[in-house]
Amino acid sequence: MLWSLLKAFVVGGAICAIGEVLVLKTKLTPARILVGYIVAGVILSALGLYAPLAEFAGAGATVPLTGFGHALTNGVKKAVQEIGFMGAFTGGLTSTAAGIAAAVFFGSLAALVFKPKAK
Amino acid sequence: MFDKNAKPSPQRQRQLDRYKQLVERMSPNSDMGQGLLRAFWVGGSICCFGQFLQEAGKMWLGMNNTAASTFCSTVLVLLTALLTGIGIWDKIGQYAGAGAFVPITGFANAMVSPAIEFKREGLVLGLGAKLFTIAGPVLVWGISASVVVGIIYAIWPW
Amino acid sequence: MQGTIELRHRPRLCMGAAIAGKKEGEGPLGQGYDQIIEDDLFGEESWEKAECRFFYTAADTCIRKAGLTHQQVDVMLGGDLLNQITSASMAARELKIPFLGLYGACSTMAESLCIGAMLVDAGHVKTALCAASSHFCSAERQYRFPLEYGNQRTPTAQWTVTGSGASLLSSDENLPAIARCTHVTIGRVTDLGIADANNMGAAMAPAAADTLTRHFADTGRSPADYDLIITGDLGRVGHDILMELMKERGCPLIFERYMDCGLQVFSPDQDVHAGGSGCGCSAIVLNSHILERLRTGEVRRVLFMATGALLSTTTSQQGETIPGIAHAIVLEGSDPCSGAC
Hints:
The complex is a heterotrimer. Helix content of chain A is 84%, strand content 0%. Chain A is built from 6 helices and no strands. Chain A has helices at 2-26, 30-46, 50-57, 59-62, 65-83, 87-113. The relative contact order of chain A is 0.10. Chain B is mostly helical. Chain B has a domain at 58-158. Chain B has helices at 10-26, 32-60, 65-85, 89-96, 98-101, 104-117, 123-130, 136-155. The mean pLDDT of chain B is 94. The two termini of chain C are 31 Å apart. The radius of gyration of chain C is 18 Å and the shape is globular. Helix content of chain C is 34%, strand content 23%. Chain C is built from 10 helices and 14 strands. In chain C, 60% of the residues are buried. Chain C has 2 domains: 8-170, Stage V sporulation protein AD (Peroxisomal Thiolase, Chain A, domain 1, 3-Layer(aba) Sandwich); 179-333, Peroxisomal Thiolase, Chain A, domain 1 (3-Layer(aba) Sandwich), CATH 3.40.47. Mean pLDDT of chain C is 95; it is low at 337-341. In chain C, helix 2 crosses helix 3 (86-95) and helix 6 (200-219) packs parallel to helix 7 (235-248). In chain C, strands 1, 2, 3, 4, 5, 6, 8, 9, 10, 11, 13 and 14 form a 12-stranded mixed beta sheet that branches. The A-C interface holds A 23, 27, 30, 116-119 and C 40, 47, 136-137, 146-148, 151-152, 162, 196.
């Protein structure tokens, strides 16, 4: 287990560090970088390049937003295999439903409980 | 100004270039090494914790792979929502930059923070609508890209 | 003449009031403010209402300190950073003083003083109140991100001041005069192609240089004729660029006699990166620190020039560059002998 934690740390850290290079060098806003990351994840996964990384690093590859893109592609492919063409429209959200639903639900809950605070 | 094809005069262009150089000379740059180090260790730690959650889910809670990774992202989102709510996450974000926003925690923070901030404009048009102001583009482009991949895959599986 | 107007009757600046937020109160000029509001919400339900209350309180404090009532003020000029300058308008709703709302981004304090001084000088009104406000939280959510969003601020970014300042101008001989307004120079919108909304100082510095150059040419004066030249919120980067631009134009500023409110309002260890910004920045520094120095005679003649970055989130997203503007007004401390001779 220690070995898998270390792999997740190093690969996850490296993916984040690449993001920081983009922040500092290109003045891209975080929102643009995140869009870039998720689309990159979708494409890398479609090309079959992301699965080996996810296999190797576990959460180190799936927790960063590229992993979200990977999950979208995985879901779409699986759904297409199962139900055919229409799977292109159902698979992505099915496989990422938990993350999105959790963010929507906990986000709304937090908004009801907490107040905005000055820095 | 309203002629779309008009280029600035050579004189004006020289002025703009010179000023750009002056601004670059006078503006301090972010410390690259420090920024990378912070992004690396915070981002790495978050992923490492995610890995721990997955392993823990499999080992002690009897989850299968899918359930464990769902457990991992749900817990990370929940913790981010809490830290955002009590006003700690913005400090982590300021410290770690991409180390905080690249993992799924950043996605959660991008949803939770406008929800809290815009609650005052009402539960429907404030909280409900503004929840997606920052994270929306990620979903829009991510889902669209995956649908394109799905269509290609349906026609031409590899 | 290129935008400079000489005020022949030298209208009086009778009183100033500065209401500041908690962080500003902890800054180097903290003792000078009339009131420091520890609660960011000022007892209200939203940042916008809080800012409105800052505006109201500054205006009300200024009028009361001058010993006047709201009815005795002929006109109020002012604005803030929010869309449709709601803080100023809604404060004016309560104050019930005839109101001209102004938008000059962070240059609003100088803009209102310029117009107010001209109205008083021309004899159209006897007493004019000039005010401006900004609030970190309301500006942040309108121009940038929600407060809880974990974004990284760049080293050139500035920190919006929470606070409001108001000045009372009058031609009434019975009111005390802290200073007299002698000249105003109206700014030109200047844009040298800066599009980075996190580097406002660089966007505004060319406008400041333009206004200064025209002011000196119109009045035949030089930087040495002023005890102090004050810019609004150029911050570290804009301050250095302005020094450089004025040197290039053969009219170098004297370092000891040039100050930027954005650099004075916070101390470097308050983690504000390039310094303070916002309408409130120059407004609270002018109406506390600067007026006090004029009152005590420590400085006799100052040029107060607030700079504004005239961008909106919409134009920014459409890729527009940031136009800057700077308005200047000359304030002269009452001559000890002017009453007698």
